[in-house]
Amino acid sequence: MEDAREAAVAKLAELLKHPDDLNTKVGPLARKLAKEKASIDAQLNTGVQTQLDNVQGGLETLASSRDNSEKIKDNMQLIDRLCYDAQSMIKDFPRIKKISRIHQNFVATQQKVQSLQELYQRLNDIEEMFAPMQHDIFMYDTPLLHVHYHLYKLEEFRDQTMHQARDSPHDVIITLKTYFRRLDVLSDDFTQYLWEISRNLLPLVDRDCGTTIVKLAKIIELEEKADEKALAAKQAQTSHQDLQGKGGWRLAEGNPRTIKSCRVEFFEQLHQSLRERFEEELAPYRDNEDWMGALDATDFIFNDLELVFDEIVPKFPKKYKIFPYFVLEYHRHTYDFLNHMVNQDLDAGTILRLLRFVRDYYSTMSTRLGVTEELLEPQLLDGQEQSLVDEYLKLVRSKLVEWTSNLMSAESRDFVQRHQPPEMTSDGQYGMTGAVDMFQIINQQIDVAADANQGKLLYLVVNECHKVMKDSQSFWRKLLASETRKQLDEPEQAPEGFVEYVMAMSNDQIKCADFAEEILNRIIPQVEGKYKAQVQDKLNMAVDGYMQIAASGREALLEVTFNDVKPVFHELFTPRWYEQPLIPSVIETLKDYCQDFATHLNEFLFNKLMNDTLERFIMLYLEAMRRKGAKFHMEVCPDNIQKDIRLSFNFFAKYKSMDELEERFDVIDKVHTLLNSNRRMIFVDYYSLRQAYPDVPLAFVEDILSKRDDLDKAALKDIVEGIKAKAREYEPNANTPPTIFSRIKW
């Protein structure tokens, strides 16, 4: 009931996905479900009625059979009674009957004596045939059936004799047993020979002794038929006691044969031999705890079963179901071995190999042997693959955390202490070994999981690796922020080499992003469809995270670089700026830094850093115009600004294209034009600036104009009011992207 309720709720959730569906879909769904229910009810009623009719017919047939059985029993009793009554119709019948019985006994005794006299000679003949093959089951063209036939006859004679002598004195029975002891020994030896053949079916096939197997099957069939006849006689003896009461009825005397159950014993011997086969193949690996080797050695299972199907199955009657027996026996031994293996302390690689083995096992059974998973009971690992997956992921997680923690500890120590410069590649770029080492570990885990050929497992391992990558990114983000703050706040106390190690760390982050992207491109074809998007998301997030850390490293380099020149920018447009050029010292500092960046930094990062450097330079230059101490002496200020622009332009021209530089320096050119504009042109120049940079703050324009020494307060007031009026008339385009003015913190 609970399962049905859950199924119903799930079905409703699928049909009614939105609140509006309650108004629009409930009515049609109710009518549709009512029709389906009526159709199912009609089918059930028809099926139930058919079953009731069949049961009724069966009951009637049973009743008729019981009546017929009673009639037959009555008729047999009538026949017995007529036979008994007819004896009185024959003159001297008792005497005739007695003489006939005496004659029969005499003939039987004569035959019995003759058989006893010939017994040892017949045994000699059988032993002579049996001796050569007794110790070599691989002998070609053995007289196996001939030996069995004669031995069967002697056993039949022995059983009859012992049965007839069952009421004889004890010494007679002892004498007969002694006389038959040689036959008993030979019979036991022959039986053991048959079981030796049963235990070696596969070796017999390998040695081209298939005819021996056919003879074995024939002997088992003959013995089974004899057992069935003996059991039928005993059953008749038990079931028809009421037919024996008048002395003349001999039907149910029974059968003296000893039941052998050869077929049962054959399968018992086969079971024992298959257990020994598994022990022989897998015990060395188990004793040495070489579980990977044991799993690799299981190919014999499928090879043996193919041999059974092709060579052994045709040699037995279909009713023996030889192939299903072999399959289930091999499967159960495999099941027991895997259960023993699971209870051991397995490493991550062995667990993964075990999971892959189970999957490949069922697949091979199906493709090579045509045996589906549903037929193989019990289920391997008892369906506990998920617990093994969890254990594997736990081991992967612990190993990844352990290895990466050690890597991070060593690299963070080098990054913080900086006793030695970072390593340098052949092309001059700084780097650290941690990125390569970490992704070797990650690649190893992912490759092993991919070899398991299980999409979900691969996704889960990728997920664990993503956690490690995410933790690594968080670690570097915090460490970089902490060390950058120390470098900026207390540069004298910070160890040397910060810039070099930040370049190395940033280069490593780009490498990590490339490694993660390579993993993504490599494993996506191996991931199942339902996990593909999740794997892509995880690895894309990892790539983005590494790029963000690299960007943070770039920002740290930028902060350190401009931290050295910020005091100079604070003095622009102050009296000192008018006394001597200041920008040359800034350019020299930038030149030193950028030369190192160009040599030791990843090309992609260097290009990004130069973009940032150029923008930061322009932003600081614009910010300096608003500083409290800035004054624009219009006789010399425009020329000085022009010199600053020319010098800085020439410096950045080494790293950026002319078109890009002209576009970037345009903002300073337009501000310079506005600053140098006369009262009649100032509105036009402001409009030009506003057109190009719609987000230019009005306060910025007002500030720089207020610092001109050629404008008195009245003139400044008129200009500012005119600019404000112009600003109100201007309607910027809402789709215009923000410019450099939006990135300046005013």
From TrEMBL:
Keywords: Exocytosis, Transport. The keyword Transport applies. One of its GO terms (biological process) is exocytosis. The keyword Transport applies. It comes from the Eukaryota. InterPro entries: EXOC3/Sec6, EXOC3/Sec6_C. One of its GO terms (cellular component) is exocyst. Pfam families: Sec6 (PF06046). Gene3D superfamilies: 1.10.357.50, Exocyst complex component Sec6, C-terminal domain. One of its GO terms (molecular function) is SNARE binding. PANTHER family: EXOCYST COMPLEX COMPONENT 3, EXOCYST COMPLEX COMPONENT SEC6-RELATED. Belongs to the SEC6 family. This is Exocyst complex component Sec6-domain-containing protein.
